[in-house]
Design a protein that fits this description.
The chain has 10 helices and 10 strands. Helix 3 runs antiparallel to helix 4 (86-105) and helix 6 packs parallel to helix 8. The protein has helices spanning 12-39, 44-53, 71-84, 86-105, 108-120, 244-280, 292-320, 326-351, 361-368, 379-393; strands at residues 125-128, 144-148, 151-162, 169-175, 187-193, 199-202, 205-207, 221-231, 282-283, 286-287. The chain has 398 residues and is an alpha+beta fold.
Amino acid sequence: MARLAQTAGLTDVQSEILATVRQFVDKEVIPHAQELEHADTYPADIVAGMKEMGLFGITIPEEYGGLGESLLTYALVVEEIARGWMSVSGVINTHFIVAHMISRHGTEAQKQHFLPRMATGEVRGSFSMSEPDLGSDVAAIKTRARKTDDGYVIDGSKMWLTNGGSSNLIALLVKTDEGAEKPHQNLTTFLVEKPEGFGEVAPGLTIPGKIDKMGYKGVDTTEAVFDGYEIGADMVLGEAPGKGFAYMMDGVEVGRVNVAARACGIAIRAFELAVEYAQQRKTFGKAIAEHQAVAFKLAEMATKVEAAHLMMVNAARLKDSGARNDVEAGMAKLIASEYCAEVTQDAFRIHGGYGYSKEYEIERLMREAPFLLIGEGTSEIQKTIISRGLLREYKSRS
């Protein structure tokens, strides 16, 4: 058992789940990740294995066919999977966010319709807020849903859909005319069912081809173009127009915990690779791990891994307790993603010239780690969230 990133107070069930996932990652993910990532190939066999283990339904309530586990359990599973290959964790991350939103905010009919099939992986979710010109200014969304006698018609373009082609359900945030003064109260979340694939997948809905990315390969990242797409009013999440922003932010909050978990997973793997290589590679008659410069670097890396893991676990446990965790989730995402980038780069440096070769796993991690600095909100956005929360809690009485 590795010394780092251990979690105290887990139940026997949680420990068993994590042991099973770790074994799966070691046998089915790590040995194939390099080849699949370099070819930018969707990990179909790995996804099939995750379906068999029930991972797509890990947090879905048992009454709807899921395992009914906590956010903490899921985050620790994500950490293990990302340790093997971050793209695989991306396959289930957006799915989990959508399932969480439906479980928390959906109507009973929506829960019955979607959750049992999401638990088996038959229905897989993607999550869509961003637009080509949007960035972090969610209130400036331009994609619009116009109300008609039969429901709504959606027009506009969305960007950065993880699993955009491989999913068959999109949680979609668009603008509707609710007459509210505050822009975010005119945003509505729709549950858009669609076939898998690319091109015009449904009348009025086109999923262009995959966006070619520096890293985070294998998983498909796409745009979604709506042009007169018709959808029923019963597909408004919770049948509550104008509440989409709040529902999405709830999803993003748990998403930030999971991005932190992914960052922890990559950092753990980077440390594992570095500490092993440092004991094998010899210079000046001894292993480089015995040189103080490298030994101290390993100490710093391990400390960062441990700190990020503990903050991620704390944020997940707060959310599970029902407490507000926007500040803690922001802190966990901020420090885990920044430390992940630092630990990965230090591991790269320890590998020397070999780290630049595609034959070595650290080269892939170097391309994956930067994504976590921007996913689910940049570090600057996290600092905004954290500072606002702190000022709210520590409001001056002078």
